[in-house]
Amino acid sequence: MGATQRTSNDYWTQAGPLATLLTRVSVLGVIYLVLAMYYFGFSLDFYAISQLGAAFDLFSIFIPMFVCSTAIGVVLGQAVPRRELVTVIALFLSMPLIFTSGFIWPVESIPTPLLSLSSIFPSGQAIPALLKVNHMGASADAIVDHVIRLWVQSLLWLGIAFYLLNKSNRDIS
Fold it and tell me: Shortest CA distance to 170 belongs to which of 1, 16, 11, 4?
């Protein structure tokens, strides 16, 4: 449920929080998966950028990353009063999360409190795992810790999203 949808009594309140959450995660996950296949498949091939990762290893990262990201979006949609604020918050958080993931700046040079704070978001696990698989040729065994952490994050964010959707549905009813 987006920020301004909380005040009306439409399908998302009649379907229940679990059905709403699963539908949103599924639909948005498929959209993100198609985009990821374009970026990590066609685009890299088209521009002759080397890629060493197997498709299965990439999917094992993409799926929990998209589930977690979608759940975070639902949480943000429930937490803010106006839907346009979700975009502002996402833009505000995106650059620090990219820097703290170790993609641009070495993780060893980043203060520990910032790393701890960024560890609640999927970028801290997904980006290093994608770099290991796609550019360093790592196998699934080398990223299993990242994938497990992504699934744990996904379950936690899904739990928070379910709680907020359930609370919002009770407030509307």
Answer: 16
